[in-house]
Write a structure and sequence with these properties.
The complex is a heterotrimer. Chain B has 3 domains: 236 residues, Rossmann fold (3-Layer(aba) Sandwich); 62 residues, no CATH class; 179 residues, Rossmann fold, CATH 3.40.50.300. The two termini of chain B are 46 Å apart. Chain B has 20 helices and 20 strands. Chain C has 22 helices and 20 strands. Chain C starts with a strand and ends in a 7-residue tail after the last helix. Classes of the chains: A mainly alpha, B alpha/beta, C alpha/beta. Chains in contact: A-B, A-C, B-C. At the B-C interface, helix 5, helix 7, helix 10 and strand 20 of B face helix 5, helix 7, helix 12 and strand 20 of C.
Chain lengths: 307, 560, 557
């Protein structure tokens, strides 16, 4: 019985294990730190390692299908940027080739290459973000700080599907009356569309009065609001994780401030040799980006031993 | 019009010498709702099976059974099949097909109806039973309650004149049971079909029924309408055990004195009846149990559990403390949650986070032998799975050997257990051939041989009658007096209210609201015992039937 | 002590005629009170006066006492917790996007801790058995489930009184029954006082402890169910007679011996009929007329298969249907049977994956909206989706222009008179009540003199009198040879007006024929009156009116 229902469950629910199962705030801290580091560090070694690790993270999170879709467009875009930048920009000092009278400089090539890396890393991060921290959890974090905004967002999420359904109904009815947005001249279609929205607005506003009543009848606005907390935040557990990420992040930022991790491109390309500090920073950044992998790996080990 | 008339029927099973039914006589009017109740083994099922020719067991039968004025034997098979419908106890036993659609069509196909007619009837039935949501599912995906509704629908689709049901809700959880009963009631009202029902849970049924019959040892000893059946039983025996099977409102009524009017049968009527009493005294001076020192024998600390990496969490951070020598009840919830919790406590499953402490030592540090010999014993929901030998005696002897008793010691222990449980007469039977309540007793007996300090019971009151429940209650109290710790997972609130020292509510992977039964039930509005619902206005802390009766007597009538 | 005591209550909105006039009544604790009356009599306003935060603002005289103290003197928080309110439209009351968040909304507003919230939800779940709904999104629920969630959200506050304003009028019959049975359980097992306004009273008369019949702002009749019905017949009050259950109508009109117990439910009705033993002449059943080939085929659906998503299940499976000129076809079926999809296919909003749908020989999905508007008219479930202008008059004028109707103004006047909406011409459609909006929409549709009208649940939420008027309207239309296709849940209404019905199930036609062919002998798709007359001394009939026709032929017993 467990076996058959397990297959069903696997298909139905995305189980919150490992990284996904962490408290949303922890996940948010991870993503924010990573985003900041990617944008500030521009040494290709760092960026390449980030990209590489993030690709593995995405594979682990089962989002590589989505990733592939994006990758094609990013590579295309990235390739385009590199070509354009290299051919059009003539700043810089090191000359690589001369093609048809134009000097191809190393600096713009390198710069566009690094930009592309950065974009790719951000994209990879974003895909992972989309997969793990869905709308609900994100909203949950924000509702602690911006209660009203979060509340209105939740209201919007409730009403958008409803309004969509109503709009369908309206367009069906009005279609039979002779008004349609798929037939007729542009002007007629636009007019019909506006009319539909107007009907939707009137309808929804009228019904919203009832909604307001229902809210008042359940005590909205009478006093101190408490919040239902579906996720548990245990300091001992979550605190350690947050502490680790933040301290690693701190080390990386300090390294940046001290001048490491950035490459000088303009006016002249200059790559200083890697020092020990660089190696340390590289190590830290690898650990931070590989964080989800570490969490998952720990889980996997645990389950392996439990068996 | 009389639809069934049973005259002086005796029945003996083929291989047995004892009479299963003894001079049974009654009539059932068309359109009535008759309820039959009695202890396990009293002959209820046999009687029902005699009314449906296809299910009649082998044996010798005297007396006559008339259906619509004709002898049952003389009526042709086709009429009988379509006019008398039978719903059995176990939902799975009756279903033959693999999809809902086919199951519904089965009976009609056997009757030779055309495709169009079948389609129309199925459309009807599905809508009537509100099955639209799960109509497309496979049978294996349905819950117990849905399966039982499906059974009812597939019989009803043939438009029978009589519906016979043998303990249809005993394997279902309370919500599914209530839903089933309400559907049955609605059916009866809308179609006027005659219903003959055997049930243990009379709380829901009494208000719908028109005739009640009490059967004991093969004879019908009491017969009457729901409001006077209590009186009739009382006349036979002032303290008849079956009086406890009656609805709470009726029990309170008869517990208060020998009223001779019609008794209240619903909660609302009970409330009105209680309203005649004063409510100055709210608490009874009882033996105050000395505060137990907080020395838990079994504790869970922040346990998390799931069946595999890709499965959802079933137990989410549960922390529990169970004191030595107390009876702890875990209530509520459907699905696997409570059973899993019990398995964690028994050490059969390991949590992936958190730990279980037994005697202040982590459970994983115990070996299997240490755990299950003279320590913990778990009674599963289906006790049949415990037995491997062909007679109970053999099974006990094997168990005794396993635990390391020598021959002398073994027979002594077996004697002791037999005496405690009064199962001497069952010792030479096959474990699978005893009835529900007896099966439970012999299963507990087997576990007691292991001399456990902690006994875990999974839904022990499922499908057993009032008498067996009472015996179980006494047994558990006896064991507690001997110092055993008992943990029970159950749906049965009344049972928990009577017996528990501490109750907890299981919900969504957590155990909430852990408290003594009094406060546990009193603070809930909806999830509480029938007695509490009746007495809520006057005595909010009264949780069992006895509480209410005592408080009423102590307060006296309100002379308004 | 009475739970509620209303003393000479009068109310009027500022600058308008008095709405409630001198109302007095009491409600005991634990009662199941039913309030009924025609639309516009002031029921909703009366109910809302009990709920302080949403009480309408106007001139109020008289008092309302709750547990002996005036309502205004109670602390608002206590009242919020003790009195719960559920409205008519399931969607309008829901605020959150997930079920769990919605039901704890009230608890959050009142500042309860998460622990307390979880405890209360745990209790509730074990009583109602809704564990499977808890983690769903609101958009996935059906109407009936949404209304139950609304009820739950209110019950979590542990109220002592539940006030409900037509809670089942937007629900299909199964969901309505389920909802009412939950209410009955709450009243029965917990002694919860229930005050409910309803139009469909067939089931409620048997359950109610007290009935309040309201008309024109006054309580005209009050008492137990039996007392009220007797008074209604004594006064020969036509308005309230329409609320009386069908079997009781038969009893009151035909029975001489009033000492007999008045039947209020199907069970009691059967019992009463069983005491009669006369034979009746069987009424000939209306048989389907063989199709005459001269009749013009308006709509033809042939072996239509349709699914909304590529891998989804088929909503329509091999559906075939033909509607000829002058037919009045009613389509009934449960939720999810494909009724609305069928309508959509007929108006061309969707294109079937297999098979075709033709209107006057043209595929519907190909038709331009202008052509469509000439050939058919569509009255939607929600009249709010129909009106596009600020007054009804403007809407009508627009229609006149679009269809180029000659003598536009006269047509408008004539139709308004026929539909009795002349006084509403200058109003904004949303300012009208539900029934008025319905009538106005129908009037607008008929301006264009369509030959085919499609209606989706036209009688939703209508009170009995309005329903009767609507039935007359439709019958008039039918006589003028307008073809009507009506999708509905209301079997009784169908039996009165339609000449051809169809039961849709699982995307196919389960059965088709005249109402008596289709609805007799059924468990579910039938009227309560039919259930009573089945297996009784009377021949099976669908409506009380048929019984009236038959009865005088016999000697009154």
């Amino acid at each position: 019985m467990i076996q058959t229902s397990s297959n069903r469950i696997r298909r139905l629910i995305i189980i919150d294990t490992g990284f996904r199962g962490l408290h949303p705030l922890v996940q948010l801290i991870y993503y924010t730190c990573m985003a900041i580091l990617i944008m500030l560090y521009n040494h290709p070694y760092f960026l390449i390692i980030c990209c590489f690790v993030l690709i593995i993270v995405n594979i682990m999170l089962d989002s590589w299908v989505k990733l592939l879709k994006w990758m094609k467009s990013i590579l295309f875009l990235g390739g385009g940027i590199i070509l354009l930048n290299t051919f059009l920009v003539t700043k810089g000092e090191t000359v690589l080739w001369i093609i048809g009278g134009r000097a191809i400089m190393l600096e713009p090539l390198l710069f566009s290459f690094i930009t592309m890396l950065m974009l790719m890393a951000i994209l990879l991060l974003f895909v992972a973000f989309n997969n793990t921290l869905n709308g609900q959890k994100f909203l949950y974090i924000f509702s602690s700080f911006f209660q009203r905004t979060a509340f209105f967002t939740m209201l919007a999420m409730r009403f958008v599907p409803l309004l969509k359904m109503r709009l369908h109904e309206i367009s069906d009815v009005q279609r039979v009356k002779g008004l349609s947005i798929s037939h007729g001249s542009i002007k007629e279609r636009a007019q019909s569309g506006m009319l539909f929205l107007q009907v939707l607005l009137t309808w929804s506003l009228t019904d919203a009065i009832d909604t307001a009543d229902a809210m008042k009848a359940r005590g909205y606005g009478t006093g101190e609001i408490s919040k239902y907390k579906p996720y548990r935040f245990i300091w001992k557990h979550e605190g350690i994780i947050i502490g680790t990420i933040v301290s690693l992040f701190g080390i990386c930022i300090v390294g940046l401030l001290l001048g490491y991790g950035r490459l000088e491109i303009y006016p002249k390309y200059n790559m200083p040799p890697l020092t020990l500090v660089d190696a340390l920073l590289l190590f830290c950044i690898t650990i931070i980006s590989a964080f989800p992998l570490i969490i998952e790996g720990r889980e996997a080990l645990k389950w392996h031993y439990l068996k | 019009m009389e639809i069934f008339k049973v005259e002086n029927v005796n029945f003996t099973f083929a291989e047995s010498s004892k009479r299963a039914l003894n001079a049974v006589s009654f009539t059932i009017q068309q359109g009535s709702f008759a309820v039959l109740f009695g202890a396990s083994g009293s002959g209820k099922t046999t009687l029902l099976q005699l009314l449906k020719r296809e299910l009649t067991p082998n044996g010798k039968r005297d007396g006559e059974i008339f259906y619509k004025g004709e002898l049952l034997e003389d009526i042709d098979a086709k009429t009988l099949v379509s006019e008398i419908g039978f719903v059995m106890q176990k939902p799975d036993d009756q279903i033959v097909m693999d999809t809902v659609w086919h199951e519904l069509a089965f009976g009609l196909e056997n009757m030779g109806l055309s495709n169009a007619q079948i389609r129309k009837k199925i459309a009807e039935m599905t809508s009537y039973f509100g099955m639209g949501d799960w109509f497309h599912k496979k049978i294996s995906e349905l819950s117990g309650g849905q399966k039982q509704l499906l059974n009812l629908a597939s019989i009803l689709i043939m438009q029978p004149k009589v519906l016979i049901l043998d303990e249809p809700t005993s394997q279902l959880d309370p919500i599914a049971a209530t839903e089933f009963m309400q559907t049955l009631h609605r059916l009866h009202e809308d179609t006027g079909v005659t219903i003959i029902l055997v049930e243990h849970r009379l709380e829901d049924v009494f208000q719908f029924a028109s005739d009640i019959m009490l059967i004991e040892n093969g004879s019908i000893i009491a017969q009457g309408s729901p409001r006077i059946i209590g009186q009739i039983v009382k006349k036979i025996n002032e303290h008849h055990i079956m009086l406890e099977a009656l609805p709470t409102a009726t029990r309170i009524y008869y517990g208060l004195s020998t009223f001779t009017n019609e008794s209240p049968i619903t909660i609302r009527e009970g409330m009105e009846f209680i309203g005649n009493y004063k409510n100055e005294i709210q608490e009874l001076p009882r033996n105050i149990i000395e505060q137990k020192i907080d020395k838990p024998i079994l504790a869970m600390k922040d346990c998390w559990f799931r069946y595999g990496r890709d499965f959802p969490d079933i137990v989410k951070g549960v922390s529990l403390k169970i004191q030595k020598g107390e009876i702890f009840c875990i209530l509520g919830g459907n699905g696997a949650g409570k059973t899993t919790l019990l398995k964690l406590l028994a050490g059969q499953c390991k949590p992936y986070k958190g730990y279980v402490l037994l005697h202040d030592k982590k459970m994983k540090k115990y070996s299997m032998e240490q755990l299950y010999k003279k320590n913990i014993a778990l009674l599963p929901q289906n006790p049949k799975t415990l037995f491997l030998q062909s007679t109970i005696r053999e099974d006990y002897e094997v168990t005794a050997k396993l635990i390391g008793f020598d021959k002398m010691e073994a027979s002594l222990q077996i004697e002791r257990v037999m005496k405690m449980l009064h199962i001497e007469s069952l010792m030479d039977m096959h474990p699978h051939s005893v009835s529900g309540g007896e099966l439970q007793k012999i299963a507990i007996g087997k576990l007691l041989l292991l001399q456990p300090k902690i006994l875990l019971l999974d839904e022990p009151t499922k499908g057993i009658d009032v008498f067996a429940k009472k015996q179980l209650q006494q047994l558990l109290q006896q064991l507690r007096a001997q110092g055993m710790t008992i943990i029970i997972v159950t749906h049965d609130m009344d049972f928990a209210a009577e017996i528990a020292d501490c109750c907890g509510l299981y919900f969504d992977g957590e155990v909430l609201a852990i408290d003594v039964p009094k406060s546990f039930f009193a603070q809930n509005n909806y999830y509480t015992t029938a007695a509490n619902k009746i007495a809520r206005q006057l005595y909010p802390n009264a949780v069992t039937c006895e509480d209410v009766i005592e408080l009423c007597i102590a307060n006296g009538l309100d002379k308004k | 002590m009475a739970l509620f005591k209303v003393n000479q209550l009068s109310f009027c909105y500022p600058g308008e005629q008095p709405l409630l006039k001198d109302i007095s009544f009491t409600i005991e604790e634990g009662d199941f009170v039913v309030l009924c009356g025609p639309s516009g009599c002031g029921k909703s306003t009366l109910l809302r006066l009990f709920i302080q935060p949403i009480a309408p603002i106007g001139e109020l005289t008289g008092d309302i006492y709750y547990k002996g103290q005036e309502l205004s003197q109670w602390e608002s928080r206590t009242l919020l917790e003790e009195i719960g309110f559920v409205m008519q439209n399931p969607d309008n009351q829901i605020v959150m996007d997930e079920v769990m968040k919605e039901i704890v909304f009230a608890l959050e507003n009142l500042g309860y801790s998460t622990f307390e919230m979880r405890k209360r939800v745990a209790e509730m779940v074990h009583f109602f058995g809704i564990e499977h709904l808890l983690h769903k999104k609101v958009a996935e629920l059906s109407g009936g489930q949404k209304q139950i969630i609304n009820l739950l959200a209110v019950l979590l506050l542990k109220p002592r009184v539940l006030i409900l304003d037509e809670p089942t009028s937007q629900l299909d019959p199964i969901a309505a029954k389920e909802f009412l049975s939950i209410l009955a359980r709450l009243n029965e097992e917990f002694g919860m006082t229930i005050i409910i306004v309803e139009h469909r009273l067939e089931e409620l008369f048997a359950v109610a402890d007290q009935i309040l019949m309201m008309d024109e702002g006054r309580i005209q009749i009050t008492g137990t169910s039996e007392m009220c019905i007797r008074q209604v017949y004594e006064q020969q009050n036509a308005i309230f007679k329409s609320y009386v259950p069908s079997i009781t109508k038969l009893f009151m009109e035909m029975e001489n011996d009033y000492s007999q117990c008045m039947p209020l439910s199907v069970k009691e009705g059967k019992r009463w009929l069983a005491t009669k033993n006369t034979s009746f002449i069987s009424k000939p059943m209306m048989k389907s007329v063989a199709k005459q080939t001269e009749k013009e085929l308006l709509i033809e659906m042939n072996d239509v298969y349709f699914q909304y998503e590529k891998k989804g299940r088929f909503v329509l499976k091999g559906l075939s249907l033909s509607v000829c000129k002058g037919d009045f076809l009613a389509i009934v079926g449960g939720n999810g049977c494909g009724k609305s999809t069928l309508l959509k296919a007929c108006i061309g909003s969707i294109r079937p994956q297999r098979g075709f749908v033709k209107l006057l020989g043209n595929h519907t999905y190909k038709l331009h909206s202008k052509e469509l508007s000439q050939q058919l008219a569509y009255l939607p479930q929600n009249p709010q989706a129909y009106f596009a202008h600020t007054t009804i008059e403007k809407e009508m004028q627009e229609i006149v222009k679009r269809h180029q109707i000659s003598n536009g103004t006269e047509r408008i006047e004539a139709i308004c008179k026929e539909f009795n909406i002349s006084h509403l011409l200058h109003r904004h459609p949303e300012d009208c009540s539900g029934g008025e909006m319905q009538r106005a929409a129908l009037a607008c549709i008929l301006l264009g003199n369509p030959q085919l009208i499609m209606m989706d649940e036209p009688t939703k939420g209508m009170d009995p009198i309005a329903k009767q008027q609507f039935a007359d309207l439709l019958q008039n239309l039918h006589l003028r040879n307008t073809t009507i296709i009506m999708v509905t849940h209301d079997i009784e209404f169908t039996a009165k007006v339609a000449n051809s019905c169809m039961i849709l199930f699982n995307g196919e036609v389960a059965v088709q024929g005249t109402p008596s062919e289709v609805f007799t002998g059924n468990y579910f798709y039938t009227t309560p009156f039919n259930r009573i007359t089945r297996n009784s001394c009377m021949p099976e009939m669908l409506t009380v009116e048929e019984a009236f026709d038959l009865w005088p032929a016999q000697v009154r017993f």
